[in-house]
Amino acid sequence: MARKVGHIVGDLLETIERLETKTADRTYAEFASDWELRFIVERGIEVISEATRHLPDEIKAIRPEIEWRSIAGIGNILRHEYHAISSKIIWDVVKSELPQLKAAIQAIAASEVMAIWARLTITTAFTRRSDVKARFASPALLTILRRCRLPACQLR
């Protein structure tokens, strides 16, 4: 399924904001005792994890201080080791890590590189960067992209 990078960034921001709303004015004790809230938050973190996997490396490089591999990793843990993760870890992610990620995603959304990538359609069925194919909206965009030396992908 083809996705535009701008849609992925939008999904990330929307999910983070919804998790912030769901957990606002809640204590850890309330979170830990509310199965439905924990389920919603864990699913939101899975969505965030999966969305970050589809961000091109050039986009992630805008904010290298973000531990992108860890974000991908927590999604794997939630999917495969869901029974072993503590509510405290999830709560700490929501309250400590998501605000930092939100700021980074907002900075990415406002960046010049993102302005270029937002016009590209990424085929997410492929996992290797060399397999990613981009369809350009115009020859002018292709010229800008080559001038910026972005991205290292096949052009069609």
Architecture overview:
This protein is of the alpha+beta class and 156 residues long. The protein has 2 domains: 110 residues; 42 residues, no CATH class. It contains 8 helices and 4 strands. Strands 1-2-3-4 form a 4-stranded mixed β-sheet. Strand 3, helix 8 and strand 4 form a beta-alpha-beta unit. The C terminus is likely disordered.
List its traits.
156 residues; 8 helices; 4 strands; alpha+beta
Can you count the helices? 8
Category from helices, strands and their pairing: alpha+beta
| Count of domain modules | 2
Radius of gyration of CA atoms, rounded to a whole number = 17 Å
> What's the rounded overall pLDDT mean?
79
Strand order of the largest sheet: 1-2-3-4
Low-confidence runs (pLDDT<50, min 5 residues)? Answer: 122-138, 150-156
Number of strands: 4
How are the elements arranged and paired?
Layout: E1 2-4, H1 5-23, H2 28-33, H3 35-53, H4 57-60, H5 68-80, H6 87-109, H7 112-117, E2 121-123, E3 133-135, H8 139-148, E4 154-155
